[in-house]
Amino acid sequence: MNWLLVIVGAMVGAPLRYLTDRTVQSRHDTVFPWGTFTVNVAGSLILGLVTGAVAAGGASSQVQLLLGTGLCGALTTYSTFSYETLRLAERGARFYAAVNLVAGVAAGLGAAFTGAALAAAIWA
Predict the structure, then answer these.
(1) 5, 20, 52, 55: least CB-packed within 10 angstroms?
(2) Cβ partners under 8 Å of residue 26, min gap 6
(3) Taking Cα atoms as reference points, which of 2, 5, 117 lies closest to residue 67?
């Protein structure tokens, strides 16, 4: 049963990642990968919220499998983040590469901590 929860979450997360990335990126006329940045930060927020809810007893481990492992695992993408950062650096956009690296990690961590803190406030 657990693997079905992961699969169902991923079935939603993968197309959501693609559609969000394309929608966000089409609205920005820049080389900066705003689509990937957006899905990674949103996924980090969701994962922090879900993990915090499970830790506080507000959600079950099945919810974590469905939303945390399945949805967020397919929604977020470290490999694309890494590739896009490398591609920016190789194309001479080193400033954007550095911004993507620092802002992506900082915003992702900040979103995860915010989600966990929000969950703790709700289920405390």
Answers:
(1) 55
(2) none
(3) 5
